[in-house]
Design a protein that fits this description.
The structure holds 2 protein chains of 2 kinds.
Chain A: E1 6-12, H1 14-18, H2 25-37, E2 42-45, H3 65-75, E3 80-85, H4 92-100, E4 105-111, H5 119-127, E5 131-137, H6 144-157, E6 161-165, H7 173-186, E7 191-194, H8 202-211, E8 216-219, H9 233-242, H10 251-262, H11 274-282, H12 289-299, H13 303-312, H14 322-334
Parallel strand pairs in A: 1-2, 1-8, 2-3, 3-4, 4-5, 5-6, 6-7, 7-8
Helix pairs in contact in A: 2-3, 2-10, 6-7, 7-8, 9-10, 11-13, 12-14, 13-14
Chain B: H1 8-11, E1 14-19, H2 23-34, E2 38-44, H3 50-57, E3 62-63, H4 67-72, E4 76-81, H5 85-98, E5 102-105, H6 117-124, E6 129-131, H7 135-151, E7 153-163, H8 169-173, H9 175-188, E8 194-202, E9 210-218, H10 225-240, E10 246-255, E11 258-265, H11 277-304
Parallel strand pairs in B: 1-2, 1-4, 2-3, 4-5, 5-6, 7-8
Antiparallel strand pairs in B: 7-9, 9-11, 10-11
Helix pairs in contact in B: 2-11, 7-9, 7-10, 7-11
The chains are: A alpha/beta, B alpha/beta.
């Protein structure tokens, strides 16, 4: 019997950061259609910061989120169109409208130690008949036993599976494995993994997660995503195929889709540039990167200094507003 | 409202009740005891609790009969509701109204109009039930109002960051109430055409002070940053009269039509630790509102005597 891994593509969500939230209905429709035809079971589409993320702080979406969902929903035949929701940013009202626009699943994301803010949204998702995923971000900031407790809370709220996210791309493979194992022993539901490539370990970490028992993995075409990007999904499809896993994916189809639909729209190559490296090194939320570059230019300071200070202050996902605070403080300190 | 000219005769203070002896209610009690215009008439809960025992040990009349006890206590003119939105709508709001007691509602129920003291208290003096919006609303709406009166506000957005330790179970169980109520307050009191609110909990140790980022798309950027800053400074000095720990971390900047300001709120450390600026500011605002109402009552009462 072959081992099974379910792929979750988040090109249309995490990838939104890399495109500065400029997806259009036609781009979304090309990529969603391609992913669906290649057999990807879950396609996540939202502003990078989830439903309701369009803002000064995180960047305004070029196209309304519900319009993008409708465009994807029209071309998807088999996959579950999935949205991301961060309680505190998105609301149940947003979720209802997303469902009306075709969403079938929601991943409710909280900081790794704050799972209890997801109770309301997971319960609402279940009562709307949606698949609900408990999504813990920045898992490098808590030890395995604490993560296991938080995951168990999400299971108790009704989550269908738990996803751990190394949002800063900070962890090394051993740190990934021990976290997956701790959660496995604490919950009965499946576990998934989301990586960022800031230390060039997205692939190795995804493999470590699967070997430790994760049965869902997140990735994006060409790795399009925040910071140095995510795990490159077409590559991982190839790796798992070679290892004899049942992925249900069309490997060549994914490669072609990445080349034809994603490569031409990328604003910058998804490499480990210095800023991305510092995200992974200092443990900073990956989507801060482009905002840090903008603030560094505005205040005339070194982006790496801003990133190190953000890491020192233990800023969490969603605190992009503090980039200006840090830049202003550093500028004044040097004046 | 009928009845005696308050019970101002003996103490020169107006008696208040607090419903809900939790963290918020206990902190309110400390603030009331410091007030020149208010005195504690009753701390009421629905079960025996640490908060009830604490109030009793400080010589405050206590009851586990909830709103009923407050409504029946002779001389109470104003009551703070520090329970939940559901309890305020179903029980406390109607019972207080019936007893002729003014409600200062710290829940997100919003039966009555929103009150942000530095902006609209004067307009609300005659209301029987006033709502204190949210902690994030109290911390940001004055600044949004200041920007909107100077340059107009087509859109205003806030990001409130509070430490995990100062986010109680009520907030955690209902994040949408915070974001939706704050956004509505930004529009109705702040004067923005469209409001948006984001809340972030940060677990760092030692706990971070409450920090709020305010970003506004102004209608008339030609007003210039100096006038906008002057308008903000004026309202901040008013705010500081009831929240001394309020200060600007990053002064307003204008880029295109976007104004950005970052403020920090350090609590007074009455009952709650000073990093809980979020709880301090909503309580301070509630007490400031009660004091203004009480002041009016005392003046009126004095004139009648």
């Amino acid at each position: 019997m072959s081992k099974k891994v379910t792929f979750v593509d988040t090109t249309l969500r995490d990838g939104s950061h890399a495109l500065k939230h400029a997806y259009t209905p036609s781009l979304v429709s090309d990529i969603a259609k391609g992913l669906d035809e290649c057999g990807v079971p879950m396609i996540e589409l939202s502003h990078g910061d989830g439903l309701g993320g369009s803002s000064f702080t995180y960047g305004f979406s070029k196209t309304d989120q519900f319009e993008l969902l409708s465009a994807a929903s029209k071309v998807i035949k088999n996959a579950a169109l999935t949205v991301l929701l961060l309680p505190g940013i998105g609301t149940i009202e947003d979720l209802k409208r997303a469902q009306a626009s075709g969403a079938k699943a929601v991943r409710v994301a909280t900081h790794v130690t704050e799972a209890d803010v997801s109770a309301q949204h997971i319960a609402a998702a279940k009562s709307l008949g949606l698949t609900a995923v408990g999504f813990l971000m920045m898992v490098h900031m808590a030890d395995p036993s604490r993560i296991a407790e938080e995951a168990a809370k999400m299971e108790s709220y009704g989550a269908d599976y738990i996803n751990l996210a190394d949002s800063a791309g900070y962890l090394l493979p051993e740190g990934v494995a021990e976290r997956i194992e701790a959660v496995r022993s604490a919950v009965k539901i499946p576990i998934g993994w989301h990586s960022h490539n800031n230390l060039a370990l997205a692939m190795a970490n995804s493999l470590a997660a699967v070997r430790a028992g994760a049965t869902y993995v997140d990735g994006t075409l060409r790795g399009l995503g925040a910071g140095a990007g995510n795990m490159q999904i077409e590559v991982f499809a190839g790796i798992l195929q070679r290892l004899g896993y049942d992925t249900g994916l069309n490997f060549y189809g994914l490669m072609d889709l990445a080349e034809k639909a994603v490569e031409p729209i990328m604003l910058r190559p998804q490499t480990v540039d210095n800023g991305s490296l510092m995200l992974g090194y200092a443990g900073v939320y990956s989507s801060f990167l482009l905002h840090v570059y903008a603030a560094a230019e505005k205040y005339g300071i070194e982006p790496r200094d801003i990133l190190v200070e953000l890491g020192r202050r233990k800023m969490v996902g969603g605190q992009e507003d503090m980039i200006i605070d840090v830049a202003y403080g550093l500028k004044n300190a040097s004046a | 409202m009928g009845g005696v000219a308050v019970n101002a005769e003996s103490s020169g203070r107006v008696k208040v009740g607090i419903i809900g002896p939790g963290n918020i209610g206990s902190d309110l009690m400390y603030k009331v005891r410091r007030s020149k215009y208010l005195e504690m008439g009753m701390m009421a809960g629905i079960v025996e609790s640490e908060g009830i025992r604490r109030a009793a040990s400080m010589g405050v009349p206590v009851s586990t009969e909830g709103v009923k006890a407050v409504a029946e206590t002779e001389g109470i003119k104003i009551a703070f509701d520090a329970t939940s939105a559901a309890a305020h709508v179903k029980f406390n709001g109607p019972a207080l109204k019936k007893a002729g007691i003014i409600s200062i509602d710290l829940t997100p129920a919003a039966l009555g109009p929103y009150c942000v003291p530095s902006v609209n208290l004067d307009k609300l003096k005659a209301e029987p039930d006033i709502n204190m919006v949210t902690c994030g609303g109290q911390a940001t709406i004055p600044v949004i109002y200041a920007i909107s009166r100077a340059a107009g506000a087509a859109y205003a957005e806030i990001v409130a960051c509070i430490s995990s330790k100062s986010a109680g179970p009520g907030t955690r169980a209902n994040m949408d109430e915070f974001t939706e109520t704050t956004a509505k307050g930004i529009e109705l009191v702040g004067g923005a055409d469209k409001g948006k609110a984001i809340i972030i909990l940060n677990p760092a140790e030692p706990p971070l002070m409450m920090t709020n980022t305010i970003a506004v798309r102004v209608k008339d950027a030609s007003v210039g940053i100096e006038k906008i800053r002057a308008s903000i400074d004026q309202i901040v000095s008013e705010l500081r009269s009831y929240v001394p720990g309020y200060h600007i971390r990053v002064p307003a900047t204008l880029e295109g039509d976007r104004v950005t300001v970052i403020v920090q709120v350090e609590g007074q450390g009455d009952f709650l630790p000073s990093f809980s600026g979020n709880l301090d500011i909503i309580n301070s605002a509630a007490v400031a509102a009660a004091e203004r109402i009480a002041e009016g009552m005392l003046r009126e009462g004095g004139a009648k005597q």
